[in-house]
């Protein structure tokens, strides 16, 4: 099968300083696994450096860099005006000697470009959002900093694709609230590199105190402030926060300063350590050093950190939402607590740190769960079956042009839409569409 993966902002060749992470890793691993299954895979990313080759072979698949937009790294929001041009470039490319049988858009920018490219063809489009603007705005409130066009364009994109891939049950529900039919949603969780993340191997140095580890960017919405407040209830333990800028830049980083000031005011400054950015290929050593990994973001679709920790045999205490709620089986591989409930979070961490046998059992069960349900081989296999189902079943559709919008009006309209949809909100875990494909 000829498969085109469009990821304009985060292709697999963009992490020159180390292994691909996040969306980069997802696209790279899916492309590599599909190529290993005998498929002809091409990945399309924007060319943001004129020194880069126009095309390169990586891991059995080809990466093509599209010469659209500024020849320099550009914020995703600033790529919106270039979507039609990117779509036209892809359409011309695919009208030549190589035409994909199925196109898979990644993130909303990649999906819009893919939909523009195939709108006058019968090539089916599969779409993975990785995150939804409406979810981020709901959970972050005024801290949401996404572009005003994102939410209406994501809604328009849903009308132009054949199937949307959700990475968790919460996202299945959200996509249906946005107007997509249940039969057009497939739930395919992300994968974990179990050869990199496993229980055996070196662990980062630590002292004799119990260690709680939090991994994630230093920005509002990642929930480190909830953890710092919860430390008052935990007792004699340390909280290590990994993520953000390099360690030597933490002193001038606004969010790092805010978290340190919060720790001072809360009286737990001697228990909280910010270590800054950790290379992805060194993260496993940090997971192995922890007694518990805490996952408390305001929202996480894929639940990547919880899965990586579980693969390393470390129990997770996390907020019961998004991909975390799907990955963590409560009282089997870890504990789930209500989002934002700092008291329950603190008491749950305290009890689990005091329960050596419980942590041991959770850790073993966590490894088994990841290896059975969250490998990249399983993710690629599910996508392969999905592609086979949609090939040849598409009719051309209209894709709305990219236009400016009234952000304030969108806030009012979307709040009304969500309020109306919530009166008939679906139950977690149920879907008429393919689950796990």
UniProtKB/TrEMBL annotation:
One of its GO terms (molecular function) is hexosyltransferase activity. SUPFAM superfamilies: UDP-Glycosyltransferase/glycogen phosphorylase. Keywords: Glycosyltransferase, Transferase. GO terms for biological process: carbohydrate derivative biosynthetic process. Residues 22-196 form the Glycosyltransferase subfamily 4-like N-terminal domain. PANTHER family: SULFOQUINOVOSYL TRANSFERASE SQD2 (PTHR45947:SF3). This is Glycosyltransferase involved in cell wall bisynthesis. It comes from Micromonospora matsumotoense. The lineage of its organism: Bacteria, Bacillati, Actinomycetota, Actinomycetes, Micromonosporales.
